[in-house]
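Subject: Sanity check before I submit

Could someone independently write out the structure tokens for this chain? I want to compare against mine line by line before I put it in a report. The sequence has 207 residues.
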Amino acid sequence: MIFDFSDKINVKGLRIIFSNDKIECHIFERNIFSMCQTHSTNIKIVNENKIIYDNTDGIFSTEKGNILKIKTADCLPIFFMHRNHRIFGVVHAGWKGLKDGIIEKSIYLIKKYVNDFNNLEVFIGPSISKKNYEVQKEFIGYFGSEFIEKIDDRLFCNLKGIAKYQLRKFGLKNIIDINQCTFDNTDYHSFRRDKTLNRMIGLIYYE
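---
Independent answer below. Compare away.
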């Protein structure tokens, strides 16, 4: 099943799609760049000499002919795109990446190519909601009590709230949250719900 979120963004010709099954990559007849995601903060600009990036959780491109791929099953898929420049990318952000600064590293990379953040857009795809993301008390030390809610002696963490806060600290205002929970929506894969090895596949590319 394909989920097309392209109409949610405001960059001409750019598409963001997800699938809960394998995408037949050959239909694109273009290189699809992907990552071996490890909850790191490693960010790369892709080039034609390498298709798969080991120990990497964020990939960016300045070439409109490239397709970037991410896999998720509760973590945040965070897409970056600029209305006037060719730079675009996607980041895999779980709690470890958010704690260790993956958003900050992404912003520093983008700054090498773009000075104008007013036309930079961020799209947060399907990911787990706060009410379904139970955590331990050390998360208060990681992120502060602002993003942790206590209900009947259980703690729940707002990962999307953390990501938005971190993005806004760097002056990003155009943040689009699809606000769809992978745990609640059974069309999506969720590790927390099913302990599955299956993953949602997300792509960002220009038509």
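---
OP: Matches mine. For the report I'm noting this point. The chain has one domain: 2-128+174-206.
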